[in-house]
Amino acid sequence: MADTRRQVQEFFSARAPGWDSRFPGDGPAFAAAVSALGLRPGDAVLDIGCGTGRALPALRAAVGARGTVLGADLTPAMLDAAVRAGRDSDGALLLADAARLPLRDAALDAVFAAGLVSHLARPAEDLCEIARVVRPGGLLALFHPIGRAALAARHGRPLTDDDLRAEPNLTPVLARSGWRVRSYADEDDRYLVLAVRDS
Protein backbone atom coordinates (compact mmCIF):
# COMPACT_ATOMS: atom_id res chain seq x y z
CA MET A 1 0.00 0.00 0.00
CA ALA A 2 2.88 2.39 0.74
CA ASP A 3 4.15 1.77 -2.79
CA THR A 4 0.73 2.61 -4.21
CA ARG A 5 0.63 5.88 -2.24
CA ARG A 6 4.12 6.74 -3.47
CA GLN A 7 3.15 6.01 -7.08
CA VAL A 8 0.07 8.23 -6.78
CA GLN A 9 2.13 11.03 -5.28
CA GLU A 10 4.79 10.75 -7.98
CA PHE A 11 2.20 10.66 -10.77
CA PHE A 12 0.32 13.74 -9.56
CA SER A 13 3.36 15.68 -8.34
CA ALA A 14 4.75 15.71 -11.86
CA ARG A 15 1.44 16.95 -13.28
CA ALA A 16 0.30 19.38 -10.58
CA PRO A 17 1.76 22.62 -12.01
CA GLY A 18 -0.11 22.29 -15.33
CA TRP A 19 -3.14 20.32 -14.15
CA ASP A 20 -5.76 23.07 -14.44
CA SER A 21 -4.51 24.22 -17.84
CA ARG A 22 -4.93 20.67 -19.19
CA PHE A 23 -8.65 20.67 -18.39
CA PRO A 24 -9.80 24.30 -18.62
CA GLY A 25 -13.41 23.54 -19.56
CA ASP A 26 -14.29 21.22 -16.66
CA GLY A 27 -15.70 23.90 -14.34
CA PRO A 28 -19.36 23.55 -15.36
CA ALA A 29 -19.21 19.76 -15.03
CA PHE A 30 -17.80 20.06 -11.51
CA ALA A 31 -20.50 22.58 -10.59
CA ALA A 32 -23.27 20.32 -11.94
CA ALA A 33 -21.93 17.33 -10.01
CA VAL A 34 -21.76 19.35 -6.79
CA SER A 35 -25.32 20.53 -7.40
CA ALA A 36 -26.47 16.89 -7.66
CA LEU A 37 -25.38 16.37 -4.03
CA GLY A 38 -28.17 18.67 -2.88
CA LEU A 39 -26.05 20.32 -0.21
CA ARG A 40 -27.73 22.82 2.10
CA PRO A 41 -26.40 25.96 3.75
CA GLY A 42 -24.49 24.99 6.88
CA ASP A 43 -23.60 21.47 5.71
CA ALA A 44 -20.13 19.98 6.18
CA VAL A 45 -18.53 18.47 3.06
CA LEU A 46 -15.18 16.94 2.16
CA ASP A 47 -13.62 16.92 -1.30
CA ILE A 48 -11.45 13.80 -1.00
CA GLY A 49 -8.62 13.62 -3.52
CA CYS A 50 -9.30 17.31 -4.15
CA GLY A 51 -6.24 17.83 -6.32
CA THR A 52 -6.00 21.51 -7.24
CA GLY A 53 -9.34 22.18 -5.56
CA ARG A 54 -11.48 22.64 -8.66
CA ALA A 55 -14.66 21.61 -6.79
CA LEU A 56 -14.05 23.80 -3.75
CA PRO A 57 -15.67 27.02 -5.08
CA ALA A 58 -18.87 25.16 -6.01
CA LEU A 59 -18.89 23.34 -2.67
CA ARG A 60 -18.47 26.63 -0.80
CA ALA A 61 -21.28 28.22 -2.80
CA ALA A 62 -23.54 25.27 -1.93
CA VAL A 63 -22.94 25.26 1.84
CA GLY A 64 -22.51 28.99 2.30
CA ALA A 65 -20.42 30.88 4.81
CA ARG A 66 -21.81 28.86 7.74
CA GLY A 67 -20.91 25.54 6.14
CA THR A 68 -17.66 23.60 6.39
CA VAL A 69 -15.64 22.78 3.27
CA LEU A 70 -12.56 20.58 3.48
CA GLY A 71 -10.25 19.54 0.68
CA ALA A 72 -7.95 16.58 1.29
CA ASP A 73 -5.28 15.18 -0.98
CA LEU A 74 -2.36 12.78 -0.69
CA THR A 75 -0.05 14.89 -2.89
CA PRO A 76 1.50 18.06 -1.45
CA ALA A 77 2.15 19.48 -4.93
CA MET A 78 -1.56 19.34 -5.75
CA LEU A 79 -2.43 21.18 -2.54
CA ASP A 80 0.26 23.77 -3.36
CA ALA A 81 -1.38 24.28 -6.75
CA ALA A 82 -4.75 24.73 -5.04
CA VAL A 83 -3.24 27.46 -2.86
CA ARG A 84 -1.65 29.17 -5.88
CA ALA A 85 -5.08 29.14 -7.55
CA GLY A 86 -6.58 30.80 -4.45
CA ARG A 87 -8.93 27.93 -3.74
CA ASP A 88 -7.82 27.66 -0.12
CA SER A 89 -10.16 30.63 0.45
CA ASP A 90 -13.08 28.29 -0.29
CA GLY A 91 -12.07 25.48 2.07
CA ALA A 92 -9.47 24.21 4.50
CA LEU A 93 -6.84 22.03 2.80
CA LEU A 94 -5.58 18.85 4.44
CA LEU A 95 -2.68 16.60 3.49
CA ALA A 96 -4.42 13.27 4.10
CA ASP A 97 -4.81 9.75 2.81
CA ALA A 98 -8.31 8.42 2.07
CA ALA A 99 -7.31 5.31 4.01
CA ARG A 100 -6.82 7.28 7.26
CA LEU A 101 -8.88 10.44 7.42
CA PRO A 102 -8.15 12.82 10.33
CA LEU A 103 -11.85 13.33 11.05
CA ARG A 104 -14.22 12.11 13.74
CA ASP A 105 -16.99 9.60 13.02
CA ALA A 106 -20.10 10.99 11.26
CA ALA A 107 -18.55 14.48 11.02
CA LEU A 108 -19.73 15.16 7.47
CA ASP A 109 -22.95 15.50 5.53
CA ALA A 110 -21.35 14.58 2.22
CA VAL A 111 -18.16 13.64 0.40
CA PHE A 112 -17.26 14.63 -3.15
CA ALA A 113 -14.64 12.51 -4.94
CA ALA A 114 -13.50 13.38 -8.46
CA GLY A 115 -11.44 10.70 -10.17
CA LEU A 116 -10.61 9.06 -6.86
CA VAL A 117 -11.82 5.46 -7.06
CA SER A 118 -9.29 4.20 -9.57
CA HIS A 119 -6.45 5.49 -7.37
CA LEU A 120 -7.52 3.81 -4.12
CA ALA A 121 -5.06 1.18 -2.91
CA ARG A 122 -7.80 -0.86 -1.22
CA PRO A 123 -11.14 0.33 -2.63
CA ALA A 124 -13.49 -1.51 -0.24
CA GLU A 125 -11.51 -0.59 2.86
CA ASP A 126 -10.92 2.99 1.76
CA LEU A 127 -14.60 3.52 0.89
CA CYS A 128 -15.42 2.12 4.32
CA GLU A 129 -13.11 4.71 5.89
CA ILE A 130 -14.87 7.44 3.89
CA ALA A 131 -18.21 6.09 5.13
CA ARG A 132 -16.96 6.31 8.71
CA VAL A 133 -16.73 10.10 8.56
CA VAL A 134 -20.19 10.60 6.98
CA ARG A 135 -23.41 10.68 8.99
CA PRO A 136 -26.08 8.05 8.24
CA GLY A 137 -28.10 9.29 5.30
CA GLY A 138 -25.22 11.44 4.06
CA LEU A 139 -24.09 11.29 0.44
CA LEU A 140 -21.04 10.32 -1.59
CA ALA A 141 -20.52 11.61 -5.13
CA LEU A 142 -18.02 9.69 -7.28
CA PHE A 143 -17.41 11.93 -10.26
CA HIS A 144 -15.39 12.36 -13.41
CA PRO A 145 -16.02 15.06 -16.03
CA ILE A 146 -16.11 12.43 -18.78
CA GLY A 147 -17.41 8.87 -18.80
CA ARG A 148 -15.44 5.64 -18.71
CA ALA A 149 -15.41 5.07 -22.48
CA ALA A 150 -14.28 8.62 -23.23
CA LEU A 151 -11.61 8.42 -20.55
CA ALA A 152 -10.30 5.08 -21.89
CA ALA A 153 -10.16 6.57 -25.38
CA ARG A 154 -8.30 9.64 -24.08
CA HIS A 155 -5.65 7.34 -22.60
CA GLY A 156 -5.55 5.03 -25.63
CA ARG A 157 -6.78 2.03 -23.66
CA PRO A 158 -9.69 -0.35 -24.24
CA LEU A 159 -12.64 -0.27 -21.87
CA THR A 160 -12.47 -3.50 -19.87
CA ASP A 161 -15.05 -5.47 -17.91
CA ASP A 162 -12.89 -5.47 -14.77
CA ASP A 163 -13.00 -1.66 -14.43
CA LEU A 164 -13.99 -0.98 -10.81
CA ARG A 165 -16.05 2.01 -11.93
CA ALA A 166 -18.40 -0.19 -14.00
CA GLU A 167 -21.78 -0.45 -12.30
CA PRO A 168 -21.76 -4.26 -11.79
CA ASN A 169 -18.35 -4.00 -10.10
CA LEU A 170 -18.79 -0.79 -8.12
CA THR A 171 -22.24 -1.37 -6.64
CA PRO A 172 -21.29 -4.43 -4.52
CA VAL A 173 -18.03 -2.81 -3.38
CA LEU A 174 -19.96 0.23 -2.22
CA ALA A 175 -22.54 -1.97 -0.50
CA ARG A 176 -19.82 -3.82 1.43
CA SER A 177 -18.38 -0.45 2.44
CA GLY A 178 -21.52 1.04 3.94
CA TRP A 179 -22.97 2.77 0.86
CA ARG A 180 -26.17 2.24 -1.12
CA VAL A 181 -26.12 3.43 -4.74
CA ARG A 182 -28.86 5.96 -5.41
CA SER A 183 -28.00 6.75 -9.03
CA TYR A 184 -25.40 5.75 -11.60
CA ALA A 185 -24.60 7.71 -14.77
CA ASP A 186 -21.79 6.83 -17.17
CA GLU A 187 -22.14 9.07 -20.23
CA ASP A 188 -19.69 10.60 -22.69
CA ASP A 189 -19.72 13.94 -20.88
CA ARG A 190 -19.86 12.78 -17.24
CA TYR A 191 -19.49 9.95 -14.80
CA LEU A 192 -21.48 10.45 -11.62
CA VAL A 193 -22.42 7.93 -8.98
CA LEU A 194 -24.42 9.09 -5.96
CA ALA A 195 -24.48 6.80 -2.95
CA VAL A 196 -26.18 7.12 0.42
CA ARG A 197 -24.48 6.28 3.72
CA ASP A 198 -26.33 3.39 5.33
CA SER A 199 -27.49 3.77 8.91
Automatic annotation (TrEMBL):
* Domain Methyltransferase type stretches: 46-141
| Keywords of the record | Methyltransferase, Transferase
User: Example GO biological process term?
Assistant: methylation
Q: What Gene3D superfamilies does the annotation carry? A: Vaccinia Virus protein VP39 (3.40.50.150)
Gene Ontology MF annotations = methyltransferase activity
At the top level, the lineage of the source is: Bacteria
Q: Which PANTHER family match?
A: 2-METHOXY-6-POLYPRENYL-1,4-BENZOQUINOL METHYLASE, MITOCHONDRIAL, METHYLTRANSFERASE
Could you tell me what this protein is called?
Answer: Methyltransferase domain-containing protein
